[in-house]
Amino acid sequence: MEDLDFSAKPAHDPDVAARAAVQVAAQSPLYQPAVALEFFRSAGTLEEKPAGKAIFSENEKAGGLFSKGARMYLLLEGEIGLMIRNKFFGVVKPGDVFGELAVIASLPRSATAMAKINCRVLSLDEKQFHAALEKKPEFALMLMSSMVQRLRQSIAKLGAAKSATEAPAERGDILDRKTLTGLQRALAAPAPAEFAAGKGIMSAGAVGAFMYVVLEGRVAITVGNSVVEHVGSGGMFGEMALVDRSARAASATAETDCKLLPINRTDFLDLVKAKPEFGASLLKSIALRMQQLAQQVAQLQS
Q1: Selection from 242, 240, 234, 288 nearest residue 261 by Cα
Q2: Which residues are CB-contacts of 15 (< 8 A; sequence separation ≥ 6)?
């Protein structure tokens, strides 16, 4: 594995990347294949996949009595084909991470992954993923950057539509009360930011200086003229702008009187590096948003 060269990356078609949004960690400016390799090698399992072998199947559940334990993968050698309803729509190349959302957020598989030729992969189950994150927490930020890139694609498609046809998603309880208290102590933050019902918190297109954790109340996330998400206690929002330093992709308004914990970028980066459980919670939050928004996009396109 030391001889692998992941420096030359293929260009990904935007439409293919969008369809594969919950399966393949598309490349972003922050993606470093060498870091991904170190991460998977720190706790992963080396596997051989013969040509024609299905690695996981569409709609396969990540957990439960009769399900397989979900695993995420880094492709070392070979080529993986992705299929929906038995039709190929994309490929995974060496250096790509795929299948990660089933491990991060216990989501069902949205596609089938099959070895097109003989392949070698490193795999991680949920326990191994968290063990690797303890050793190399910086990987969380890199994976976030890839996920945020795909999330922005879905948000852009929703923004181009006149209105969402699906009920807004509900998000909350990503962070429990104990974790929220620990965050406040770690940040030595002043009193929470308070927003009265109807007050704007952030605006699409603006520069993002903070992300927010909802301590009390409920926040509406708006894309264009449509509310696409409600974020309740224990939920997070605004982190995308801190991950990729791009403009806000959505607006946020207090639906009820709210108390929010603001986190600036410096503190955000420190938390991701020092508290792997915080990075894991953020990854789960982003993964759930990706699934929810992808469903809304599919509804609009149907």
Answers
A1: 234
A2: none
pTM of the model: 0.81
The reply to whether 146-301 shares the fold of 14-136 is yes
- Token pair belonging to 238: 């605004």
CATH fold for the domain made of 146-301: Jelly Rolls (2.60.120)
Q: Phi, psi at residue 52, to the nearest 5°?
A: 90, 0
* DSSP notation for 195-230: E-TT-EEE-TTS---EEEEEEES-EEEEETTEEEEE
DSSP code of 65? T
Q: Rounded to the nearest 10 degrees, what angle do helices 138-160 and 265-274 cross at?
A: 130
Domain covering 14-136 in this structure, CATH number: 2.60.120.10
- 248-277 pLDDT per residue, tens: 999 999 999 999 999 999 999 999 999 899
Instruction: Please name which of 231, 228, 297, 222 lies closest in space to residue 261, comparing C-alpha atoms.
Output: 231
Domain assignments of the chain as residue spans, ordered by start: 14-136, 146-301
Q: Are 231 and 189 in contact (CB under 8 A)?
A: no
